[in-house]
Specification:
alpha/beta; Rossmann fold; 2 domains; seven-stranded mixed sheet; 15 strands; about 30% helix; metal-binding
Length: about 400
């Protein structure tokens, strides 16, 4: 099959690799019909290089049709499924408590990490990812989400990661009707977080340096602001001087305006991989501009919810400010399956209240994935979300 493989820092390529095979009775193999590039994939492209191996198949936002199924899979050939990016068993102590991100069956204990992820480095199990023609899906008796056949892939695909990630971020923020919410970063997760806030009845502000992303958010009633030195003051002025009740940081470890963090990332990337892995595991730092701005902006007694991915073990936090303002922090990988009952009716709603049909700016064949990664990282050509098509000869109506 053809698959997108990691080859080095800022270098990916589509290669011919062996087809996946089933190894357990609850496995299935899916033919991938749509697979998206996630903002988290850019961390593999740029920052988490020491934990990658040449030839790794990447990608963790995937859906498709079952073409082979084990006897314990609870799925049949022809079923259409969305694959959550978290690989969880559904039956362990953690999974039974809704913490599928901490699944005790798939935890990557070598690196002290939580549940394994598709296509996401040694830190999360080096499991082959879904930016490929086919994907092996383990624990298919509990993990995949079976969906109908009438709607396009765009309605369902984002249930794999970014839509439940945004939903969890807003739910962790604790906002509802009459509350105020700010979102730092209007990439795909930030776009959904802002729309979810509006859907739940909150007043929503958002900050992003890219005009096209601000314009897209504004179409949903979001008050979108350019990233300027005084943006927090401007938002405070609109919230009676206090700041919003909650802030979702949808940026993460590669924030703009963090020159020292960027320098640390670049320096680590120059080390041999074993040394770099050891340094990142003990003394790694993140670019923290978005997190610090979120802490500064949120009102006293408010909540900062982290949806953006952070990976530094020695990232400094303004503990005096956090303590003095009585700020609550909530964070973590998304427990995807916990939110599906809330989200599936929304993505199947004919009115499409969260705009799942409105997020994708580029749908490209898998063969163009290398240039798509570059475009997505550079935020060029108005790029907000890229979906890759492993079978470009079929028509969109055949989804």
């Amino acid at each position: 099959m053809r698959a997108l493989t990691w080859q080095g820092k800022r270098k990916v390529s589509v290669e011919t690799v062996p087809d996946p095979t089933m190894t357990q009775p609850d496995d299935v193999i899916i033919e991938v019909t749509s697979t998206a590039i996630c903002g988290s994939d850019l961390h593999l492209y740029e920052v988490l290089v020491p934990f990658m191996d040449e030839g790794d198949i990447i990608g963790h936002e995937t859906m498709g049709k079952v073409v082979d199924a084990g006897p314990d899979a609870h799925l049949s050939i022809g079923d259409r499924v969305v694959v959550p990016f978290i690989i969880s068993c559904g039956t362990c102590w953690m999974c039974r408590r809704g913490l599928t991100t901490q699944c005790e069956t798939t935890q990557v204990r070598e690196y002290g990490s939580g549940a394994a992820l598709y296509g996401y480095s040694r830190l999360y199990g080096s499991v082959p990812g879904g930016q490929a023609e086919y994907l092996r899906v383990p624990h298919a008796n509990t993990n995949p989400i079976a969906v109908g056949s009438e709607l396009t892939d765009h309605r369902y695909l984002f249930l794999s990661d970014i839509l439940p990630t945004a939903w969890q971020g807003v739910r962790y923020a604790g906002v509802g009707a009459g509350d105020s919410l700010a979102v730092y970063g209007l990439g795909p997760v930030g776009q959904f977080a802002a729309r979810i806030g509006i859907h739940l009845g909150a007043q929503v502000f958002a900050v992003d340096p890219v005009p096209e992303r601000r314009a897209l958010a504004a179409r949903y009633g979001v008050h979108a602001f350019e990233l300027t030195d005084d943006v927090n003051d401007r938002i405070r002025d609109l919230t009676e001087g206090r700041g919003p009740d909650a802030v979702v940081d949808a940026v993460g470890m590669e924030a703009h305006g963090s020159p020292l963090g960027k320098l640390a990332h670049q320096a680590t990337g120059l080390l041999p991989d074993p040394a770099a892995r050891k340094l990142m595991a003990t003394a790694g730092t993140d670019r923290l501009a978005a997190l610090h701005a979120s802490i500064d902006l949120v009102r006293r007694g408010g909540t900062v919810s982290l949806s953006g991915v952070y990976g530094g073990q020695a990232s400094p936090l303004p503990m005096l400010t956090l303590f003095d303002k009585q700020v609550q922090l909530r964070m973590g990988q998304c427990n995807v399956t916990e939110w599906i009952d809330d989200l599936l009716p929304l993505v199947e709603d004919p009115l499409d209240p969260l705009g799942t049909d409105d997020l994708v700016t580029h749908r490209l064949p898998l063969s163009e994935a290398p240039s798509a990664y570059e475009m997505f990282q550079q935020k060029s050509d108005g790029c907000v979300k890229v979906v890759l098509d492993p079978r470009p000869r079929r028509s969109e109506s055949a989804l």
